[in-house]
Amino acid sequence: MRRVGLILNAVALLLCLAVATPFATPAYAVQPDEVLDDPVLESRARELSKGLRCVVCQNESIDESNADLARELRLVVRERLVAGDSDEQVLDYLVARYGEFVLLKPRTDGWNIILWLSGPALFLLALGIGIAYVRGRASASAPTEVGLSEEEQARLKELLKES
Amino acid sequence: MVTELGHFALILAFLVAIVQSIVPLVGAHKRWPGWMAVAEPAATVQFLLTGFAFAALTYAFVTSDFSLRLVWLNSHSAKPMLYKISGVWGNHEGSMLLWVLILTLFGAMAAWFGKGLPPTLRARVLAVQSAVAVAFFAFIIFTSNPFLRLVVPPFDGQDLNPLLQDPGLAFHPPFLYLGYVGLSICFSFAVAALIEGRVDAAWGRWVRPWTLAAWVFLTIGIALGSWWAYYELGWGGFWFWDPVENASFMPWLLAAALLHSAIVVEKREALKSWTILLAILAFGFSLIGTFIVRSGLLTSVHAFANDPERGVFILMIMVFFTGGALTLFAARANAMEAKGVFGVASRESALVANNVILAVSCFVVFVGTLWPVVAEMFFDTKLSVGPPFFNMAFTPFMVVLGLLLPLGSMLSWKRAKLDRTVKQLVPAFILSLLILGLFWTIQTGNSLLGPVGMFLGAWILSGAVLDLLNRTGRSRDLSRLFRLPRADWGKATAHIGLGITMVGIAGLMAWQEEDIRVAQIGEPFQVGAFELELTAVNQVRGPNYFSTMGDVIVRREGEQIAVLQPEKRNYPVAQMPTTEAAIDYRFLRDIYVVIGDPQDDGGWVMRTYIKPLANWIWAGAIVMALGGVLSLTDRRYRVAAGARRQATPQGVPAE
Prior knowledge:
The complex is a heterodimer. Chain A is mostly helical.
């Protein structure tokens, strides 16, 4: 079924290319002309790009995407960085324009707290249950052997008779 | 003609499945041997009919019969034979048929190899298995029929998506389905045991080989998919935490948990109700996966024309089987009384910890995958949950798992002496610490990921080796190693595989180097320790595509080590470009080269990656699968089969 998913992915990719690039030539992710001269700024830009969604693609970051919109976003990120924005400011700027949808890593405020805490919470709960179970088993007394059921007794007798 | 026969066989199989899902169940309830005996031939017939339907569809693809709508949509007469065949399951309808074929195959195998089961249990297992098949036959026949004809057959087909025309991907879905659907047998066993009201060591022993087989197939299937993504998508990512990937990963995690908890049932008659629950959930997650992938629920944002009717149908199947089984579980679970008594420090406790970690990590993936839908439905916010979330929320569990693994796998059953096991592991721990320190000092930057990954890998590997050595006893007589049960070898091998994969993932993610530039023909450039030179770019014609192929020479210290030929392909029928990365695979690193567009002022865009330890990821998966196979060939399953041999000539229980 992943197979079909991949087809869907590919269709999405195709749509992505068709919708976002009217000029048909696909560009492949980060282009040489986008790269900033300042290596520190560039590496910050790359890190930020990895956490930003290409909003017209299926599930790709703008760092990986071939779509034109992704390229525009990469350029915007770099512009903001060159203008002296902090990482947080760049993200705020993009969220203000595209909504939270653009963040691949959801924020930890509001309802999202459920998303972030559900894993650790369930882990603690499961750990508690696990420990309680193990302790219960440690203090349980070994059960006495259960004998055969009546039916099995009858079958046993039958077998013994046969042999 | 053949197509119509195939269509007819499919409908017949549906009818047989209905009979098989009712008659044996009634028979088992009323203890009527005649009714129970229906299950076995019915399972075989069902499989043969479905097999015939599948063969008929394959025939239509192979002979390019474009009067069949499905063939027209997904094939082309100029396509290579391999992809004509893989095109059968390269689409929704055909892949569902493969799904059901495997479902009936497992049903038939349970009938063939299940001669040693108590007759009522066998009848119930086969009936439940067939009930699942009924639902999917109905789904295929009523919503996704692959045998629909076109009134006017077109001259040629529309071709299979070129991204999918790849040997790695041709075999990826069958393996994945063997895994998903293999879990259906565990589900059937669980439900049958609940109806029966009895779970004992023997049940654990019957379920384990099926789980093991399903897990091995899932491992291979996921690894193939990941490897395909690595070399085909053009930037060398191996895992994207995409909903579709998560859909296959969740059953894998639960199958791994089930594998371990079934050992406790088999050896110690404890954890019974939990194991039953896991068996239900593992298959439940396979169904959820099917639903996620085929309903378009998680991709609907992106304007897919997906048939909502199909989604609703699968949702109903899922709710019916998972919900029904869970209700049955709630009613019957307290009948499963645990017998084994064990201390807090024991193998049993370690396996409980293993299950806690695997189940919770599966839950994390589940919540992350569905959160966008939940947020949109209940909080009216559109948001994304992507790799950064999963990397942060999921990885810690794997680190804990890796830390505990060597310790837990060496603790003895019932009552273990913790301090003794810890002492035995000291050399492994020191070795791993040394490796951690080594990598910490030689790496640039201070990322924790790389060294920690190396530490975990070394820890698991050396722990597994020490575990095997320990089994030789005080004498350290190495010849004893070869007399150990295969299951012990399987366990060590699978664990080593996990360690290798961890090393690969950590190495690749922490130390990848990347270079993006406009390369001029004949002007060498340096990436890391390597010198690359683009010497020529040619236009090449393939069987059903055109290609722009670059020749790249890779040198190290002036010496040529490889010639790479990255391509950009264009498939005219599907009107789709693809990138074909050229990769120099080596033990410690891959060099990964992609060619892009020509520039106006000359030269070509080139992207070069040095990917350390990349192969270890998939090598580890193969080693894991090998461990599973070794375990599957263990003597105790063969002995169990041998006891059955009087009744039947077939031997091995699963596979």
